[in-house]
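Protein 1 of 2
SEQ + STRUCT:
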Amino acid sequence: MSRFVDTLVATAAGGGQQRGMVTGEPKEPVRRTWAEVHEQAKRLTGGLVEGGLRPGTPVAVLAAAPALIAPTVQGVWLAGGSVTMLHQPTPRTDLAEWAGDTVKVLNMIGAGLVLLGEPFDALAPVLTEHDIAFRMITDLLDAEPLAEPVPVGEDDLALLQLTSGSTAEPKAVRITHGNLYTNIKAMVDRAEFVFDQDIMVSWLPTFHDMGMVGFLTVPMTFGVELIKITPVEFLSGPLIWPALISKYRATTTAAPNFAYAIVGRRLAKVEEDDAYDLSTLRIALNGAEPIDETAVKTFTDAGARFKMPPECVFPAYGMAEATLAVSFAPLFTGLTLDHVEADALEADNRAVPVPEDDPRRGTDEVRSFAVLGRPLDGLEAEIVDGEGKRLGEREVGEIRLRGEAVTPGYLTVDGPVPTQDENGWLATGDLGYLVDGQIVICGRKKDVIIMGGRNIYPTDIERAATSVSGVRAGNAVAVRIDAGTRRERFAVVLESKLAGDAEAERTLAKEVAARVRDAVDLRPYAVVVLPTGSLPKTPSGKVKRAATAVQFADRIHQSAGH
């Protein structure tokens, strides 16, 4: 049996009898111990095995309620299957298009079955129409429990994690039982988890790796108390998040940049100083690349009034290709920024530090990046140049990873694709450097804009654009045009409430172009102003640069003509 399944079963018999998962907040909170979740999972396993599920079969799951998802995914693992969390349609989704995409994903992973739960049980007719085999989760939970888990090995697949890439073609990361156990064990060790004392709060979607692996699989495997709500519940009233941290004395949470910014702004408007108590928080994980220092500051400044220690901010680097986590910043040190010379970075790929008392700090001559800690146990990182030669400290190149948590490969519509070279290295596509063995990320290789022999990072352009009044925070995208040619240029596409007023749009575009030119000494080819909610984003809320370039190509060229 794999170490992962062994641990799940042992937890249910041990600490899982005291600790568990709370769902249904704030209206109807229900708590089940992990032992009770395990009993439900065994019934679901029984139903799957009785229905003819063979070991090694990929099973897709489409449900939103965490109370259903937890026993379902555990039940699939106990039955020897692998889990794929399908991307969920929203009220705005075109269902015919969604069904087409879903059929493509199911064919790609070779899924024998979709397990359906609320609120998506209403999609049953759509699945039937497309000849997709499915079973209702609630029906399976009434089956006879399976006494013993189906045996699985370390190299058997546990998860097929769909990536939220910028291309239309789906891709799934193959995560084995060995990958999963290695990474979740390394995470709890580095975060110094005390299983019977730590308490986790999460609203992250389970179809995203952080929500699925970090904030469901980790607590379920090791028996940590978890309070789990859905993204919809968070977005409909963001202050539910600090309210749950207060109510349950939570120690651990995680979110992307935009959520920290939203909650920071909402907390700042709360009138009563004792409305929340955030003093127990020791880990507020932020795994966005790049980490937005403004969003972090908004959150920590507002949280201070509610006794939140600013050092709880926990920068991390992660990717599904390494199961989830690559590196964690040192515990309780907060957000540490590395300030470097812009010229040396852009022209020579060197991260030359700028001392604290240097007057250039805070000007356009200096760039700052979050320090993301050392690789977790079982992972090693190196920085290489374009020819694959290993670089030294503070030399910028592509980050490569190797170790037990690194996936053996992808599944694509054209078949399996390996992720590792002959020496086991995974090329991440991220550009960065090392400082005292700690990882610093500058940006994505594919997004870097090369002009006049300089490497311009889109984040520097985006930061400059969003500093202009009228641009929605976190909603400006720098995109490459004519990439790889001698005419390579860039445009800025942004969201603003001023969209639709031609005169205001023109003024805003001019201000953004001037501010960007000050920051990076280059003028954008075009600035496009869009209404709120227009930019394409990943399920976790990150903007998609490549998709933005394609979707708004005509608008970019029209704007350049003005």
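Protein 2 of 2
SEQ + STRUCT:
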Amino acid sequence: MPIALTPLWFLAYLTPAVQTQPPPPWQAFYEGGKWIPGATAWIGDGTRSQRTEEGLVIADGSTEKGSGRHYMLNWRADPTQGAALEAQVKAVSCSQPWGCGMSVADGVHEESLTIFPDRLLLVNAKREFPFDAAGGFHTYRLEVQGEDLRLFADDRLLFDGAGAFVTPAQLEPPRNQCGFGCGASSATGEAIWEWVRFRSALPEKEALKVEAIPGLKIELGEPFEIIPGAIYTSLFRFRDGRLAVGGKHSSDGGQTWTDGPGMGTHCFEFPDGEVIGLGFNSKKLADGVFEVPLIRSRDGGATFEESAARLNIPQGTGGTGDDGKYYEGPPVDHAIVQCRDGSLLTAMYGYFRTDTVLCEAFPPEWKLYKYRTWVMRSTDRGETWDYWATVAYDPNIGIESFCEADLLTLPSGDLLCFMRTGGSGPSFSPLYLSVSSDDGKTWETPRPIADRGVWPNACRMADGTLIVTYGRPDNWLAFSLDDGRTWVGHTCLYQGATTSYNSVEEVEPGKLLVVYDSHSLDADGNPAKGIRGQFVQVQRG
């Protein structure tokens, strides 16, 4: 009779005399056509996946470079406490290591189990076991803790590898993820996966709920699709209530959408109905002089003409973005507002010639420096823009310092500037807010208002409530009842893979529309990205 062995993940929760806390629960990575939020995939040409009565078929019939179909999850495994990945699967074919199997990495070490029809292979540990993996469904489990590794098949221990989990985890920072499928371009493979589950330090995702907020009643609606297959595009609200998301327009508050003129990430409508919009990337014309695409509609948004706006930034310069690419000039971000004297302000971020403090989260050879955020002023309806004032620059704050600003004008004339300070690297950093009371010429010292926040977007409701969207991870809302002095009710709107770029507008009194993108997997294991809308009811009092 085989001896029952205590799994490593269970031992991690024991003292010599007593269990100190319960083991983490199993969580479903994939089961019954459903994926855990945050699951991602490497999907190359020549591969396929499909849900069948037996399970999810994952097949890679190509050996071309880039082919593979491997599903991954950042599972936050703790090397000291251990983690486990388990799957019920039937092998069909496998030509080489990584052609079909499971993988685990805990941020320090990594291992891969290849499932051949007639054997199992621990790739890095270089251990092989005869096994009839094609004869039916079997349950395979990899357990790791510290430098120890165990392999089980149908709860039978096949390999007890003390000191065998020692191959360094690849990438920078070292990957901490589990995965399954076909993981090598040079190999072919096919298997049927009934379910895959894991144990790790990753917290279980709770159902989204709205906590009690003093002075507010919040109700989240169900998400709906606006543009299938697309990534984030901003929401714009015309003065008459019409809405636009890219090339989709709505005249009934977002209930239905039809095709219309394409609109960019930041537009502004004058009181007389003329609409302008600025592009994102600027091009250098001369030292301190740049240009950016400009669109203008003289018929209320029915048609647009294209030209270029001039940007005069005496100390401005190009530089490397957080994608590692070099750009001729600094980007114009997603805000245009009108001041009390009728002039316009827009936000930009990037570098002045003196901004040379490196971002530690990126490779030093990129020469990615800590960002500065500033505002530009136009007095000729957006044709030319002149540097007006720096909102914030402090290389000691955040992962990237201040960037991706949004501007909001209050009835008093005060301006609010919301700024990202992170979003890349192993952690995230707070969302900051600065205030100007003199039409953007001077700004208060920025202060944090949320624990994270890329690409914030804000609006003011008819009853005076302020809203800001932010995120990464996930998508969030926060509310202010006192013109931005304090922020309450930080509420998660969406959990899962997304850019965490959001837009928000009040579409009717007490009703918000939030627009964002989602990146998920469908029941067949194929990408299912798209731009979503979600209504939020907000009642004050």
